[in-house]
Write a structure and sequence with these properties.
The chain is an all-alpha fold and 83 residues long. It is 46% helix and 0% strand. The longest helix is centred in the middle third of the chain and has 14 residues.
Length: 83
């Protein structure tokens, strides 16, 4: 079972243990993440979910929140999240 949303939330919690991040919170507008962290997100997503993110999808909007990243992974894997 792919648990996209919860795996992304766990990854963020591991990197920002003192913050409570909601699924729709904009990580960049809130100053939580920066461009260097975006690279870490990309690497985590590609490894954890066994996907290759195409250049056309390497847009900041795809990494703004847990919700947008979940939708990206669902689209790339062709599998809706179970959580």
């Amino acid at each position: 079972m792919i648990e996209i949303r919860s795996d992304l939330a766990k990854f963020l919690a591991g990197n920002f243990p003192n913050l409570k991040i909601s699924d729709d919170e904009d990580l960049f507008a809130g100053g939580i993440a920066n461009s260097l962290f975006t690279i870490q997100l990309i690497m985590f997503i590609e490894k954890r979910f066994s996907v290759q993110i195409p250049n056309d999808d390497l847009e900041l909007d795809n990494f703004r929140s847990i919700t947008t990243m979940t939708k990206l992974v669902e689209r790339l894997t062709g599998t809706p999240s179970d959580d």
